[in-house]
Amino acid sequence: xxxxxxxxxxxxxxxxxxxxxxxxxxxxxxxxxxxxxxxxxxxxxxxxxxxxxxxxxxxxxxxxxxxxxxxxxxxxxxxxxxxxxxxxxxxxxxxxxxxxxxxxxxxxxxxxxxxxxxxxxxxxxxxxxxxxxxxxxxxxxxxxxxxxxxxxxxxxxxxxxxxxxxxxxxxxxxxxxxxxxxxxxxxxxxxxxxxxxxxxxxxxxxxxxxxxxxxxxxxxxxxxxxxxxxxxxxxxxxxxxxxxxxxxxxxxxxxxxxxxxxxxxxxxxxxxxxxxxxxxxxxxxxxxxxxxxxxxxxxxxxxxxxxxxxxxxxxxxxxxxxxxxxxxxxxxxxxxxxxxxxxxxxxxxxxxxxxxxxxxxxxxxxxxxxxxxxxxxxxxx
Length: 381
Known about the structure:
single chain; alpha/beta; Rossmann fold; 2 domains; 5-stranded parallel sheet; 17% strand; globular
């Protein structure tokens, strides 16, 4: 199956760029398709890595020998941050366009490395979204996750287990120089249990047998390696007292399934509801970046437990996600409370009802209709 990826760097022109994405999201395949004539240096290849590590100047010598090379891709650039000095010189002195891709900006951000003086644009690639998949299958996405190989698999459980073991655990442990492997593994499971919930550092620290500061440092590792991200609380001029704790989402629903040992997700089950909300978040987050709008995504929760799942932008769109075929008044309380405090362009319940309808100014939208409006550019207009 060929996916029509939505990330295509429309504003890059002749500019160099960074493309960051977790492993197996398809960044190498995308770059080769968009830049078929580019010279590629893949730092995952041991011989390529060793040659350039021994002589970083080799890349300069190759390009100076052949002035016809206009575009260069360096894949997994975070493995060799010192190459960026050579890249910077070549960008300035030869006008070569560089595509610098990697699965983690952490090592570069934490080193004293040359960051190219702001000369490279920054992009991210995410797991597949519904608009990129012909004949999109919701239940397949919720069970397998949306990494391309996983989504396509008839049974992705072994693939996901290998991904978690070889990448999430082993590689992150090496990169962050974590000494206690078992504690970090426990931490990943605790993160999965609190996925899409308010983060309680103390509780997670107790579960893992470490300090709250250690847990916070582990969350920072997940953020800096693109494995997850925080969703902050919306609290602009609140009348009601709001909760301050952020939520945290892992970058793909398939990883949560594996870490929680959910088994097969069945329609209308409790795990379906959790995975469904996570999926909708993935779509919204990807749209924010792919569309170029880069609107903020936050959530709203009061001390009296009234909540709205997602607030998009400056209280422009309020979205509640409910895995229900029968939305009733009790499902609308959070949105109604939010609308009492803020003026919104649209208040939406994303659900599994078969047809769209309107109740007291709130749009009740089947998830298919919501995603069509999102990707057609109608939601934020």
